[in-house]
TrEMBL record:
UniProt pathway annotation: Carbohydrate biosynthesis; dTDP-L-rhamnose biosynthesis
The name this protein goes by in its record: dTDP-4-dehydrorhamnose 3,5-epimerase
Gene3D superfamilies cross-referenced by the UniProt entry: Jelly Rolls (2.60.120.10)
Enzyme Commission number: 5.1.3.13
Lineage of source species: Bacteria, Pseudomonadati, Pseudomonadota, Alphaproteobacteria, Hyphomicrobiales
Catalytic activity, reaction form: dTDP-4-dehydro-6-deoxy-alpha-D-glucose = dTDP-4-dehydro-beta-L-rhamnose
Biological source species: Blastochloris viridis (Rhodopseudomonas viridis)
Gene Ontology CC terms: cytosol
Gene name of the record: rfbC
Length: 187
């Protein structure tokens, strides 16, 4: 695997190192030894999947507060999506900044999302399936979110989201002084 740093401190895109022949290829999706050598999380307690039927489906921007803050490794298995992360860690050099990358079945790129980051995506095609490795169990009491079009964050989505859950549509704006940023201290 190739761990490529993003502009956000501690976040990476991960490219597979394919070994192939005329039958196709073989590559590691996860290797505890390689993740540990890169200084990344190696313990994952859940593997989740999502299926989004329509282009323009938005899921996010989600995070969990400590002690339930989680690391995610996200990969698109079918179709294509634009994956976005936002650094909510107070004191981080990239605090309040966002990064996005296309993940697709074709490019097989993955996103490593550290603790203390909001995460979400919008689908770029119909019938998108994503797979997530997650380091902490889902804790509804710790779940929070940021609005996908919060002007304080300023995410530039490549397509206008057309399908959103009520929950994702109604997350509050993240006011850096009052609504969430300060809650991620110690994440």
């Amino acid at each position: 695997m190739k761990f490529l740093p993003t502009p956000l401190n501690g976040a990476y895109t991960i490219e597979l190192e394919k070994r192939g022949d005329d039958r196709g290829f073989f590559a590691r999706f996860f290797c505890e030894k390689e993740f540990a050598q890169a200084g990344l999380e190696t313990r994952f307690v859940q593997i989740n999947t999502s299926l989004s039927g329509k282009k323009g489906t938005l899921r996010g921007m989600h995070y969990q507060l400590p002690p339930a803050a989680e690391v995610k490794v996200v990969r698109c298995l079918r179709g294509a999506l634009y994956d976005v992360i936002v650094d909510l860690r107070a004191g981080s050099p990239s605090f309040g900044k966002w990064f996005g990358a296309e993940l697709s079945a074709e490019n097989r790129t993955m996103m490593y999302v550290p603790r203390g980051f909001a995460h979400g995506f919008v689908t770029l095609t119909d019938d998108v399936e994503a797979l997530y490795l997650v380091s902490a169990f889902y804790a509804p009491e710790a779940e929070r979110g940021a609005r996908w079009n919060d002007p304080a964050i300023g995410i530039e989505w490549p397509v206008e989201p057309a399908e959103l859950s009520d929950k994702d549509r109604n997350w509050p704006d993240l006011d850096p002084q009052f609504h969430g940023f300060e809650l991620m201290r110690g994440a």
